[in-house]
Amino acid sequence: MSKPTPLSGFPEWLPRQRMVEQRVLDRLRHTFELYGFAPIETRAVEPLDQLLRKGETDKEIYLLRRLQAEADEPDSNLGLHFDLTVPFARYVLENAGKLVFPFRRYQIQKVWRGERPQEGRFREFYQADIDIVNRDELPFHYDVEIALVIADALSGLPIPPIRIHVSNRKIAEGFYRGLGLTDVTTVLRIVDKTDKIGPARVQEQLVEFAGATEKQADLCLELAQISGEDFADRVLALGVRHELLDEGLQELTQVVEATAAHAPGLLIADLKIARGLDYYTGTVYETTLLGHEQLGSICSGGRYENLASTESERYPGVGISVGVSRLLARLFNQGLIDASRQVPTCVLVALPSEEVRRECDRIAAVLRRRGIPTEVSPTAAKYGKQIRYADRRGIPFVLFPGEADEHEIKDIRSGAQTPIDINTWEPSEEDRFPRIVTSQG
Amino acid sequence: MSKPTPLSGFPEWLPRQRMVEQRVLDRLRHTFELYGFAPIETRAVEPLDQLLRKGETDKEIYLLRRLQAEADEPDSNLGLHFDLTVPFARYVLENAGKLVFPFRRYQIQKVWRGERPQEGRFREFYQADIDIVNRDELPFHYDVEIALVIADALSGLPIPPIRIHVSNRKIAEGFYRGLGLTDVTTVLRIVDKTDKIGPARVQEQLVEFAGATEKQADLCLELAQISGEDFADRVLALGVRHELLDEGLQELTQVVEATAAHAPGLLIADLKIARGLDYYTGTVYETTLLGHEQLGSICSGGRYENLASTESERYPGVGISVGVSRLLARLFNQGLIDASRQVPTCVLVALPSEEVRRECDRIAAVLRRRGIPTEVSPTAAKYGKQIRYADRRGIPFVLFPGEADEHEIKDIRSGAQTPIDINTWEPSEEDRFPRIVTSQG
């Protein structure tokens, strides 16, 4: 065969990058578990009607077909999931009798989007999600908790500083209704395009398609520009009143105040956050990486009242999703994050001759039993060549076996070589496993 | 929507089972890293010609098609990978310039098989693979090392005892050639059916399709029945001689002797192991779970000389793959393995009233910063009800907040309640995180 080439949209990392990715996923998992979130994984596929049931026809879906399908076999009607929220809602309904509610889960898996090949967007990527759902009603304090968890999870990562932007769908909806605009969905959809088409065209479209006067359109635009600590006063200063607006302002205030106490400066109210036309009904979260704002939101979510429901049951929820692959691709491409070496190995046992390989294996086994990642040299080449083997991989130590357990170890960075007892020698905690190194220090 | 139902062949676990699966995968990963294997993940999809290039037309493959494909858009020609070895070979060729050889990697991912829906077989499952490849030639000592690694990896798992069965393709091939049978592939294929169709029919087919005499067919069957320590003597006693046979016997002896020294009783020579008609060319491994032999091999692999090659480059390799989902499904179904609780939470902070939720969040934050998984109660219900919340999930401790940091903690299993300082209190290591519990004790 000829040399294969990468597939656009399906990123693959080198081992040292995969080590970074693993540590980032481990860190997220650890934080989620500290908050009591239990893990699940869902299958990669869902029936197509599940994937399409929220009318999200803009989701690009990959359908599956068996290569060896028989002529009369019906279509599998299965598609790869495009997010983890829709499969989670299905899982909750399917397993409701076996779960305990409120149910807190995290889920870290790849998702797929059947994007047009030429667009150069990711077609396979990792998401790390947390959600809390309950039967019938979910108390509002969970909207606050999700913000606290994600603040801890992201600030524990070796990434540039972040800022969480929060709004509440009830604010916009209450405001539009208070203004007398009844086609809330259309208004939201148009206002959400402000960054793309600019305020002038948004104003025109609000007048043309949403039945707004110029004054009403102005106020809608002004609302979306409000952010920061005094957001509630500034909204009220626009002079619009509605019960739903009050509820939204009060909820958003709670999220902002609780997070300010827990992690000052990390989260701001920002009323332009709308999360498209998704299933969200209250709080909505987006997150920017400071200095990388053009990357868009690296972590988004919100409250959904109706995603997981049957005719007889209802499981409202709130959750958030970290776009791990997109975040890491950016940091890798800009050289901002790396692993301290390219293999897990901490010690290379040098091989004096092929005849003593079993003896060297036993030395390695002693170190491994003590939790020190160890390899034996691939060949009994000259020691200089064996040291180069370690050096090319970033392995910090080479052990030279001696007679009667009198071994020596060389730190190949400093060149220092000392006798050791393999039953007690320890590398520094810095050297034992590969570490993440960032260009921020 | 109506209540969803499971999809046959796509297993999903409850949270407590997923915790067990995570710990099993963590344990495998840790062992692989102790041996210096570096992690990679490959994309879920490969071009169809890659998936089919070893002529393995019996592999059941899922093809992808974009739901929103345009009429004139060519087929994606992408399929989901059915194992991790074929994608790994492709990854090595694609990234050869950026990797260091010999290249040792592990890879833990789901794979998919487009099996007929009615067969009830897994269509999505986890595999955990290790492989070592080198440019041009790979020394034989790696065939020994793979056996040592997998012996450590599997014996470190909370599963019933295992036995690794090893053979070497060169033995059968050399033996058949020494006998004068030249259509080695046909002989192998027929002998490999012994368990299915019985020795009498194998004998008939060897005579009919492989041009064997009855005597030759008898000897082929006798060879496949040899296993255990004195295998080499018993093979030679059959009176057949061939250079390739000698090489195979000598290689197999090395694997058996080295593993016997490292982990006595774990590995046996077993000449009936053939690994179907796969890409293996030398050592082949299979693994049975003692007491669950009818489950088949839970961990298989071998040496392959020609899987990763282009016109100008060749990367021989040796590796092995653990069938994690199949193994766990068995243990779950038989009630042999479980988690000690169904959530990560170790401490539930009871909530005296909704007004003091922020204060209870702060108590929880102190415990979490000290690495203790902690939740705050969902409601300020009566304490009896809050204790039941913990009990239903297996959360061992409930903390009752007091005035001026005078808190008490109750072990709800013993009922013992004591005052604690949240800055110093520690649960036992047994209680801090959920553990795996096995019915073997």
What does this structure look like?
Chain A is of the alpha+beta class. In chain A, 36% of the residues lie in helices and 22% in strands. Chain A contains 15 helices and 18 strands. Chain A has helices at 15-34, 48-51, 85-95, 141-155, 169-179, 184-191, 194-197, 199-209, 214-224, 231-237, 243-262, 324-333, 357-369, 383-393, 429-432; strands at 38-39, 45-47, 62-66, 78-80, 103-112, 124-133, 162-168, 267-269, 283-289, 299-309, 314-323, 337-339, 347-349, 374-376, 397-400, 407-411, 417-420, 436-438. In chain A, strands 1-5-6-11-10-9-7-8 form an eight-stranded mixed β-sheet. In chain A, strands 14-13-15-16-17 form a five-stranded mixed β-sheet, covered by helices on one side. In chain A, a hairpin with a 4-residue loop joins strand 10 (299-309) and strand 11 (314-323). In chain A, helix 4 (141-155) packs parallel to helix 11 (243-262), helix 5 runs antiparallel to helix 11 (243-262) and helix 8 (199-209) crosses helix 9 (214-224). The longest helix of chain A is centred in the N-terminal third of the chain and has 20 residues, at 15-34. Chain A is elongated, with a radius of gyration of 27 Å. The model of chain A has no long low-confidence stretch (mean pLDDT 92). Chains A and B meet through helix 1, strand 1, strand 3, strand 4 and helix 3 of A and helix 1, strand 1, strand 3, strand 4 and helix 3 of B. Strand 3 (62-66) of chain A pairs antiparallel with strand 3 of chain B.
Helix and strand topology:
The structure is a homodimer of 441-residue chains.
Chain A: H1 15-34, E1 38-39, E2 45-47, H2 48-51, E3 62-66, E4 78-80, H3 85-95, E5 103-112, E6 124-133, H4 141-155, E7 162-168, H5 169-179, H6 184-191, H7 194-197, H8 199-209, H9 214-224, H10 231-237, H11 243-262, E8 267-269, E9 283-289, E10 299-309, E11 314-323, H12 324-333, E12 337-339, E13 347-349, H13 357-369, E14 374-376, H14 383-393, E15 397-400, E16 407-411, E17 417-420, H15 429-432, E18 436-438
Parallel strand pairs in A: 1-5, 7-8, 13-14, 13-15
Antiparallel strand pairs in A: 2-4, 5-6, 6-11, 7-9, 9-10, 10-11, 12-18, 15-16, 16-17
